[in-house]
Write the structure tokens for this entry.
Amino acid sequence: MTPITAEHAREQVAAVVEEIVASTPVSDIHTHLYDPAFGELLLWGVDELLTYHYLVAEAFRYFDMPFEKFWAMPKSRQAELIWNALFIQNSPISESCRGVLTTLNALGIEVRKRDLNAIRNWFSEWTAEDYITRCLELANVSTVCMTNSPFDDLERPVWERGFKRDQRFTAALRIDPLLLAWEASAPQLAKWGYAVTPDLNAKTVSEVRRFLEDWTKRMNARFLMVSLPPDFRFPAQDDCAQLIEKAVVPHCRDFGLPFALMPGVVRQVNPGLRLAGDGIGLTDLTALKNLCAAFPDTKFAATVLARENQHELCVLARKFRNLHIFGCWWFLNNPSLIDEITRMRIEMLGLSVTPQHSDARVLDQVIYKWQHSRRVIASVLTEKYGDLAATGWTPTRGEIERDVKKLFGGSFDEFCALNLR
Ligand SMILES: [Zn+2]
């Protein structure tokens, strides 16, 4: 009998891990996609892929024109200019550009012809309904969680009217304007029938809670979420911290829902770029630590934008079981960084994390985001199981399947179901 060498064990593990990672469906816990009932709010197709804000920012590295001239053009013309700058005049080797090609290739489109109009013709054959099914199948995604804002004038009427939910789309209640622009949001709430005043007195707090309750129920929200600037502080006397303490935390505790924080975005570093103009900043995670420590019976989820915050975030999650960390988004959504961050999270937290969410803004992006991330996650897991196998602890197929399910949404489900009260 040949002895099983460490090298041999690793090779055996690699093939099994790759197969299981590819075949395990993902529950994508944060996207900017919409249930088809929202109609035009669900973006899809090649022009949307090309005018994604990641690509807009990259194209302006090469463009020689004023911002406003670009924004005045129809979307199809913007897409053509981006295609020309990022795919024809230069090789599309950035991660965002590669993502477009991974997506088109997976759909069966011959990208090597470099023919944008032929690609557009291919898309014109599809209906949204069929295309959703095709994309989710190709990405092997079972459910996508939307980002739903009662403050969005296009979105709100659809919720108020009511619609038959597509079971593949779950909801998350996004409350940025409530927390970050209370002065403007208070009159809005008042207009919608909530007896609030700009002053955060007891009556106003109870009305804000009624607002959160109404929308949580209307959407059947899985969690509440906010994206925060890097200088977010807690505890503090400002409106944001006071609303979190007095309204959002008690609401989440009573409903057993996580409050997801996404700190690190600096809005409009370059306003000329519009949606592509936001930047990044290092977050002082003391605020998150204070929240987790002050409210041990409330669940917090967090994904932080700065690479430099990732290690501290892992340490925080080791200290607080009411904190779940997830995803590598936006400026972190690059293979080298996903590799580094996923490895660190698994080394420090085992399987009690959600390594990735797609953050897709265009439906088709779920294909590339998950294909690229699956590859990185499989390689990290192969290394980790290989290290175990070298000790004689060879993981069984069933154990690997169980673990991958956790990383692909199962851990987050367990966290949501956790009773901390
Ligand atoms: Zn997002």
Notes: The chain has a mean pLDDT of 97. The pocket of zinc ion is lined by residues 30, 32, 359 (CB under 6 Å). The two ends are 55 Å apart (CA to CA). Residues 178 and 346 are 34 Å apart (CA to CA).
